[in-house]
Amino acid sequence: MKPQSTIIVPSTLVLLLSFQLIAAAADTHESFLQCLSLHSENSTSISKVIYTHYNSSYSSVLELTLQNLRFSTPATPKPLVIITPIHVSHIQAAIKCSQKYGMQIRVRSGGHDYEGLSFRTSYNSPFVIIDMINLSSISIDVENKTAWVQVGATLGQLYYRIAEKSPNLAFPAGSCPSVGTGGHISGGGWGILLRKYGLAADNIIDAHMIDVQGRFLDRKSMGEDLFWAIRGGGGASFGVIVAWKIKLVDVPSTVTVFTVRRPWDQIATKLVHRWQHVAHKLPEDLFIMVFLRSLSSGTEGNRTMEAIFQSLFLGGEAAPLMQRDPDCGGKKTVMKRAGFNQS
Ligand SMILES: Cc1cc2nc3c(=O)[nH]c(=O)nc-3n(C[C@H](O)[C@H](O)[C@H](O)COP(=O)(O)OP(=O)(O)OC[C@H]3O[C@@H](n4cnc5c(N)ncnc54)[C@H](O)[C@@H]3O)c2cc1C
Ligand SMILES: *[C@@H]1O[C@H](CO)[C@@H](O)[C@H](O)[C@H]1NC(C)=O
Ligand SMILES: *[C@@H]1O[C@H](CO)[C@@H](O)[C@H](O)[C@H]1NC(C)=O
Ligand SMILES: *[C@@H]1O[C@H](CO)[C@@H](O)[C@H](O)[C@H]1NC(C)=O
Ligand SMILES: *[C@@H]1O[C@H](CO)[C@@H](O)[C@H](O)[C@H]1NC(C)=O
Ligand SMILES: *[C@@H]1O[C@H](CO)[C@@H](O)[C@H](O)[C@H]1NC(C)=O
Questions:
Q1: What is the rounded distance in angstroms from the CA atom of residue 212 to the CA atom of residue 95?
Q2: 5, 94, 152, 276 - which has most CB atoms within 10 Å?
């Protein structure tokens, strides 16, 4: 009898304790949801953008833009609530209520974060995802060569809308169309227009964001220091970015692109070596980048290396440029010396 009761007592305690914890969590959860409705300017519409485990679409909303499948496992910590704001007041409500109920916030735009920082935490504290997917409007001002883009818009959507309005305007940013403008621009954002126009973050002229106190700020009201910080420092360190005003850049209506692949033998080694010397001396209109990757070769599954040169020339004919060597007063050919003529 005695040994048995000493076993029963502790386990009952554990059970009671965990019931209390679950009840407390459920209470917090309920209060948090009520808080959201109260703090939102429009409590009728906020309920339509709140997803908890009880909503059947919770998982599909969570998975929709999640890119790194390493963080799509049952063991990955899941948010208590996902909010997909369609109005700025929804973001303000989420920030205020998260503070009140001790919830962490994760902000997601395109979901491409390599570490999954936009949709998970690495420790066991309850958290909320503010998923910007439904704030994705884009308005292009061709006359002034500017555009307002909300962070839920992807790079592909942005490029498409610009191209619809003009064949001579573009925005210098990354090449993967599903990357979100929220995370991309706030972290810098590089792409094939880099040489001539710099990073995406270099081409931002205004921004709308919500800060930790729930204030709506633009460039003027946030001040130049904060405006500088959100263009490269990672937006989530400072608040929730809602939209960017971007500067559009001039491009010719005809451009030239090419890709050259070389196996990792003497030629590729020479080419990469040569590329390091000339790539930055070429005219700004010619961009050449190189990917070095490993691949399996032969039947024994041995691995070898390959160099892939990808290029964009802002013009119709790149060949004459490729024949000049910026190191030799334009006399010898750039790539011939290094083996491109063997293609
Ligand atoms: C397939 C792939 C291709 C890529 N190609 C390129 C490329 O060509 N050039 C390049 O420069 N980079 C590239 N990247 C990197 C990419 O730019 C970054 O991962 C970027 O942060 C993704 O932005 P996101 O909005 O899609 O990601 P998210 O995962 O939504 O966010 C990334 C980070 O920014 C924060 N954040 C997101 N939205 C906001 C917001 N509205 N306010 C405040 N903080 C926010 C998140 O909390 C998180 O910390 C690529 C990534 C992938 C996976
Ligand atoms: C509140 O939401 C309802 C339903 O979505 C909408 O009809 C109404 O215009 C909104 N009001 C404000 C002030 O945003
Ligand atoms: C999720 O479920 C709650 C409770 O049933 C409901 O009020 C809310 O509108 C649902 N969310 C969505 C996005 O449908
Ligand atoms: C939000 O975006 C998703 C995915 O694009 C879409 O299916 C849904 O209808 C949108 N919801 C609202 C309220 O706009
Ligand atoms: C261009 O900018 C000027 C000055 O800010 C503004 O008055 C004009 O309306 C803008 N053009 C368009 C098409 O919006
Ligand atoms: C593959 O690697 C093994 C071990 O290094 C080597 O003995 C063999 O010759 C290689 N095969 C080829 C086709 O390079």
A1: 7
A2: 94
For 276: left if phi > 0, alpha if psi spans -120 to 50, otherwise beta; the answer is alpha
Concatenated DSSP letters for 125-194? --EEEEEGGG---EEEETTTTEEEEETTSBHHHHHHHHHHH-TTEE----S-TTSBHHHHHHT----TTH
Closest CA to 65 of 3, 12, 107: 107
Residue 42 in contact with ligand 2 by CB distance below 6 A: yes
Whether the CB of 50 sits within 6 Å of ligand 3 = yes
Closest-lying ligand 4 atom to the alpha carbon of residue 49 = 13
Is the CB of 141 within 6 Å of ligand 5? Answer: yes
Which of 49, 58, 133 is the best mutation target for the ligand 4 pocket, counting ligand atoms within 8 Å of the beta carbon and taking the most? Answer: 133
Class of the CATH domain delimited by 2-133: alpha beta
Pick from 93-102, 152-161, 172-181, 263-272: least confident: 263-272
- The domain made up of 135-250 has a fold known as 3.30.465
Instruction: State how far the Cα of 193 lies from the Cα of 249, in Å rounded to an integer.
Output: 9
Q: What is the pLDDT of residues 133-169, one digit of tens each?
A: 999 999 999 999 999 999 999 999 999 999 999 999 9
Choosing from 296, 300, 303, 305 the residue with most ligand 6 atoms within 8 A of its CB, the one to mutate for a pocket test is 300
Ranges of each domain in the chain: 2-133, 135-250, 255-338
What tokens were used for 212? 């930790």
pLDDT tens-digit map of 50-108: 999 999 999 999 999 999 999 999 999 999 999 999 999 999 999 999 999 999 999 99
